[in-house]
Amino acid sequence: MSVDRNHDELAGRLGRRVLESGVVARELREGALALGGGGDARVPEPYRALADTIAEASFRVTDQQVAAVREAAGSERAAFEIVMAASIGAGLRRWDAAIRAIEEASDAAS
User: Fold this and answer.
1) CB contact at 8 A, 49 and 35
2) Distances 54 to 68, 91, 103 between C-alpha atoms, Å
3) How many angstroms separate the CA atoms of 107 and 68, rounded?
4) CA distances, 45 to each of 61, 78, 84, 91 (Å)
5) What is the C-alpha separation between 101 and 96, in angstroms, rounded?
6) Contact 51, 76 (CB under 8 A)
7) Could you tell me which residues come within 8 angstroms of residue 29 by beta carbon, excluding any fewer than 6 positions away?
8) Run of H or E including 1
9) Which of 79, 86, 29 is nearest to 56 (CA)?
């Protein structure tokens, strides 16, 4: 099995697991996953601000952003689910970029 195919399969499984269950509405988890991955989704504030920050520069996430999501979502677990969904989306986007860079370098070396 090629790296790309294996990655696609595993990434798909991971994305499905994020969406399967949780205390936060599936639509919010799905939106945070999409935003984290650099996509677009209709996600209300404060969830959108946190997911966008995770997608672009996770080191810039503030305690206030997390507190706002915790308050809006109603629990630590709910806030954790939003953070994880956005983080997984961002991680998969970065992994895809790394695979493309490796493929381009391999093609250039051929």
Assistant:
1) no
2) 15, 10, 26
3) 46
4) 15, 15, 17, 22
5) 9
6) no
7) 18, 19, 22, 81, 82, 85
8) none
9) 86
- Give the residue among 85, 77, 91, 79 at the shortest CA–CA distance from 17: 85
* Rounded Cα distance, 11 and 33, in Å: 12
Buried/exposed 5-43: b ≥16 CB within 10 Å, e otherwise: eebeeebeeebeebeeebebeeebbbbbbbbbbbeebeb
Domain locations in the chain? Answer: 3-109
- 27, 17 contact by CB (below 8 A): no
| pLDDT value of residue 1 | 39
Tokens representing 58 are: 């996770």
With vertex at residue 76, the alpha carbon angle to CA 73 and CA 81, rounded to the nearest 5 degrees, is 70
Per-10-residue mean pLDDT, the chain, length 110? 69 86 93 94 96 96 97 96 95 88 79
